[in-house]
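Suppose you are handed only these lines of text.
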Amino acid sequence: MDAIVVKGSPTPLQGRIRVSGAKNAALPILCATLLSDGNSVLRNVPKLRDIDTTAALLRFLGRDVSVDAPMVSVGETRGTVRPEAPYELVKQMRASVLVLGPLVARYGRAKVSLPGGCAIGARPIDQHLKALEAMGCTIRLERGYVIAEGPNNGGQLQGAEVYFDMPTVTGTENILMAAALAKGRTTLLNCAREPEIVELARILNKMGAEVDGAGTDVIHIKGRARDELAPFDHAIIPDRIEAGTYLIAAAMHEGSDVVVEGADLSDLEPLLVKLRAAGVTLTTEGHDLRVQRTRPIKAVNVTTAPHPGFPTDMQAQFLVLMARARGESVITETIFENRFMHVPELHRMGGEIALRGNTALVRGVDTLYGASVMATDLRASASLILAGLVAEGETEVRRVYHLDRGYEKIEEKLNAVGASLTRVRNAEG
Ligand code: EPU
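From them, the structure of the protein bound to EPU can be written out as follows.
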């Protein structure tokens, strides 16, 4: 398993970092290619393990896929479609469940492995299943698989009114895709409002569906017949979480001056507000964002919430910034029940953080110390890299396969602005 060794340094970061395309937009959009035949092209796709897993899944389903980052083409169906997502692929990436809606809508049947729990929480998919049932599906669970069948033994789904008990990102996306091929109108209530959902709706409209209201909590969809949607050619939005991670990387050192290129600024607003409150200077330069740190960081409280609240995917990185701030901050995680796995690792680096249920009380310290630490999920891994940037000595972040799921060329990008990250192949796990 690879590790990354970060050499801590007091020298500030200077230069430019370009943001890649958004992983969490690319994944559902790749699954949306299942809604039509013909050749769809997706541009600005990051080179990441999750993209390769999705490509493998689409190939398993019978599509011709070529990945040549930053371009992915999904071609015609080879032979017959096998509407099935096996455990081997789903266990590598929970987002594989995003083929469920498109498959059952298009082919009247789908067999998709249940993803199971993961490091950050139980993460059930009951809301996805409840919505499909409302659209006329029969759902059965058999030996770890969800088996969904359209009305009357594989017929077209029916438009329906669906209320989500909580805003769910992939749940909203799955049902949006299913509704694009359902008979009549579907209304989704209490939807997630993340920018990646707006991006998916844009694609569905390009394909010929009628989606209205994405980005608000009520979405209306007028579905089409199963053979009516067209393939698409689209460049995806920048990755707001990757951009946010680099903003915090720069904010870790006093004296840093970094331009994060191509960050879509409106999508980052909840994070920018908190960074400004912490004393970081942020200046918009066209589509770029300049981040300068000229003074010590102030302690700021943060509570994660569905968009447009503070993103849970930025919680670990922000907590690390607070671990070096002046004073005490309270970080509350409301989305996932187990998303503080980075905290015990930060303790090993000298962080003073107390956990009370879903709240972390963070007392800023002057010095963090390099140590061997282990990443347990994608964003936790990123946060440990950020801690390593300013720690005294070397930090070895182990099991960086998590990081490789979501950060394209992180060593190259951070080293270009003055950091020192070295990948060690086949390090100890
Ligand atoms: N939930 C349920 N039932 C459901 C669906 C969700 O109880 O049927 C709960 C979850 O357990 C969680 C909450 O609802 O407590 C919100 O979960 P959501 O469904 O929104 O999460 P997700 O769709 O599985 C996506 C991102 C995550 C990101 C979350 C929250 C993708 C591929 N994944 O996950 O991204 O943290 O939304 O914003 O879009 C990451 O990129 O590191 C990552 C984990």
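What can we learn from it? The mean pLDDT is 95. Residues 256 and 403 are 24 Å apart (CA to CA).
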